[in-house]
What does this fold into?
Amino acid sequence: MKLIVLPIALSLLALGCGSNTASAPEVKHYHLTGQVVALDAKDQTATIAQAAIPGWMDAMTMEYPVKSRTEFNTLHVGDKIQGTVDDRGDGDYDLSGIQQQAEQKQAPQKTAPAK
It folds into this structure.
């Protein structure tokens, strides 16, 4: 009897420890730069006029979900930002790592002294 139970128990154990063949989709990350043109607090989305994202999409204006409420609350229309688009495929993406872009101030132009 013991000889029959042992192989059955080992078979059941092996089935329980099997790996799950359905794996999570690979998340791809893309650097985004652009300007906030609209915010939707209800849906927690930001519409961004973005520069082209090499390897992903051309320059355009589109809406991005922002998962982090803290990051969303730092945004204002007109802000120039950079961040990371986290793309899970099949239209599942969001914006994270949002940072304000520093404005580049132009140095005052020097005028030639009057002669």
Notes: Residues 28-100 form a domain with the OB fold (Dihydrolipoamide Acetyltransferase, E2P) fold (CATH 2.40.50.320).
